[in-house]
Amino acid sequence: MPIIKTDKETILKDSIALFKLHGYHNTTMAKIGEACGLIKGSIYHYFKSKEELGLESLRYIHRYFEEHIFSISYRSDLSDREKIALFVQKTDEYFLNSAGGCLLGNLALEASHDLPLFKEEILAYFDNWERAVSHIMENRYGADKAREIAVESVASVQGAIMMMNLYNDSTLYLKIEKKLIALLD
Fold first, then answer.
1. Do residues 99 and 17 touch, judged by C-beta distance below 8 A?
2. Going from the N-terminus, what domains does the chain have, and what CATH number goes with each?
């Protein structure tokens, strides 16, 4: 295998893809190195350990959602209906074009019990997702009902992502997303 130059972000993206498809525990540093075109030891120039790489992968996805999806909820130039439609569109673009489902959802089940820093990051991600949806729904439904809708929405989307990946069928996922938009029709 030829050795190539790479950067931290490329290693993160390749690692995320592998973690999503194979899980954290089943993805070795050697597999990551192979995917990046590096020898295993070269990864340690960028990350001290597999755990650090896993945590940075979670943070990378969380930042992406904060910047590109959750932030839509707080825009003042859109109506609540436009916000939820754009929020769903951007969420769909991510999950429908990304093999392996939701990294944070997957690792919540696999690694959050034995890796407390992973759990902390995963909780922050889902809390931010719920807050973003709740913020959009609050004008129509009030704070308590908006929070309830947000929690149910995130849980439904995560379940639908799992089913979409299991059955290789996006029908249920898209149905869940349409229901969320319909709450503001």
1. yes
2. 58-182 (1.10.357.10)
